[in-house]
Amino acid sequence: MDRPLNATAASLLGFLHRGPMTGWDLVVVAQESIGGFWSLTQSQVYRELAAMERDGLIRAEKTGPRERKPFSLTEAGRSAFAEWLDREPGPENIRYPLLLTMVFGEYLAPERLAEMLRDHQQMHERQLASYLETAASHELDGNRFALATLDFGIYYERAVIEWFNNLPARLTRNT
Amino acid sequence: MDRPLNATAASLLGFLHRGPMTGWDLVVVAQESIGGFWSLTQSQVYRELAAMERDGLIRAEKTGPRERKPFSLTEAGRSAFAEWLDREPGPENIRYPLLLTMVFGEYLAPERLAEMLRDHQQMHERQLASYLETAASHELDGNRFALATLDFGIYYERAVIEWFNNLPARLTRNT
DNA sequence: ACGGACATGTAATAAGTTACATGATTAT
DNA sequence: ATAATCATGTAACTTATTACATGTCCGT
User: Fold this and answer.
1) In A75, A138, B117, B174, which residue has its Cα 20 to 30 A from B38's Cα atom?
2) Which residues 19-48 of A are in CB contact (within 8 Å) with B?
3) Is residue A143 within 8 Å of residue B106, measured between CB atoms?
């Protein structure tokens, strides 16, 4: 007990500030609001919820229809969250397999690499479009913080796309 | 055996194309060349090396001074790598705790958030400077692929810094 | 009636982190 | 001589991924 809260668990506590939610709800909400820079899976959510219930940070409300089991914040949970939130957030980390592939590009058929680049560029363009749509929808207007993180995604995708566009010049060179 | 190769292990095989290296060497080389978008730890390296030796993908050369135990690629290793390299690289994933903190910014003292933002912006500025220095040093000129990934880092850091610079306008708004 | 979304959870495994133990060699 | 760096590795643990099992309720 009183293990330090990990970021994934903490984010669940954060969402529970909005009111009681089930694991399912949390997966959906998290996917939507932090999915762009913090991945989590269903399994993780249920596991963290179970652990946090054991630790008294959340409490199960009475089970609803379809075995819905909503959890609500306890005072302990609220303060554990506040403590976590105030801590120095760690450095970001990026893991991009495509770049790994590219570092070893000399061992790969150029057309194959080109194909991968095309695919990934397309994915990023779609992601950017989706972010822009969200931004235009005004559904986040109530929360300037959420909007700011969305903005991060937009800046990121734009930069990546620009990088893709300038790549051929970089890669076609002699050497 | 014949478990699918993971990206971390595969990258070690990639580096071994340059010639036999020890775990230590690999940690250093990997840190330098892919550290920006693929983190790995010493433990992981030694574990993957042990597993790959078991699987016959690499072979230990004779131990040198200081218990140095260099590994070299086997034919099996070479072809496992080629196979891995040709595969569809998965989507990138970013995990940025600062953004998590920001999403819940409404529960945090504004000055504390501002402080975190200042710190992180500084970290990104330093990172950018370091990338630019590497780019200016011409030490990567022999490898246009490595240069391209370095470029990714530069585009990324620039975008993030720009985002930081535009943040106050975003966050100071009413609401 | 039935397909699809809702909902919870477990099992098995892989990957990643942190800390430590041990010792050799080099440079000062 | 002693501190720093080189070098290998283990132990203990936490986090993350993938796949599966089970069942409910809603809409058509």
Assistant:
1) B117
2) 33-34, 36-39
3) yes
